[in-house]
């Protein structure tokens, strides 16, 4: 991969700034000598090795891509110190091989390059003597040739390209409620769907994008307690993730329900802060909702990755 870029800004006035950037990227890739074998354990400590995909020059693939991308936007500084901005940007991802091919050489596919065009408007401000900071943004993105994996059957898959779009907003806020209490919050809303897309003869236009929950929310609280010259910090955080799909068909058996997760920590920092002792707990809600699912396997099963269960631990840190 080779790239060259330029990025700069120009003050149109004391309050208005023009930002611009441009990038040229050239990518090349080769897939050679790909093999896939299955080893089956048999009685009497024997095994059977089955070559699913053999090394064959006919399976070799390659690509050569290039793209010009960039960003153009305006920043407006308000009299109260707040910032408003708007920009347009184009992103690019090079071609990709399906390295997950297991059972058939027909799964050795190459997806075309992917591009995304985004328009974003945002507002950043501080108030209450700068004890409260808020960052917010709304955006609209349009994908051309979005890359994703299409599972055709129990033994065959392919990397494909389809068009898609998404829009939403994000809000982040931090508040220093007192000298020893800090609150942080984040909220995101997202709507993403495929456009004019067909997979395996099925129209998936309007289906939700893979791994694109509509709502994300997080909240954290930090409270400091002075004990003489020592410091005790109490920390707790929680996050909510809305339901989401893990295939473009929005299949219910390859989907996740919404879930909450919470973590906590008690930190003790004596004296000059050279040492710090912590007692922590993670996944306090004992959430067991999988963090990922994929339909795979010779029996067309669903493989799920579950999070680690509720757990506790201690930590000692030395600062130097």
Protein model, in words:
The protein is 0% helix and 67% strand. The chain has 320 residues and is an all-beta fold. β9 and β10 (132-151) form a beta hairpin. The model has no long low-confidence stretch (mean pLDDT 92). The strands form six sheets. A 13-stranded antiparallel sheet has the order 1-2-5-6-9-10-11-12-15-16-19-20-23, with no helix packed on it. Strands 3-4 form a two-stranded antiparallel sheet. It has a two-stranded antiparallel sheet with strand order 7-8. The protein is globular and about 70 Å long.
Given the structure, what is the number of helices?
Answer: 0
Spatial extent as radius of gyration:
25 Å
Q: Helix coverage percent of residues?
A: under 10%
SSE sequence, one letter per element: EEEEEEEEEEEEEEEEEEEEEEE
Strand content: over 45%
How far is the N terminus from the C terminus?
A: 39 Å
* Oligomer category: single chain
Shape: globular
Instruction: Summarize the biggest pleated sheet.
Output: 13 strands, antiparallel
- Beta-strand segment tally: 23
What are the segments in which pLDDT stays under 50 over at least 5 consecutive residues? none
Strands in their spatial order, largest beta sheet: 1-2-5-6-9-10-11-12-15-16-19-20-23
State the secondary-structure class.
mainly beta
> What is the overall pLDDT average?
92
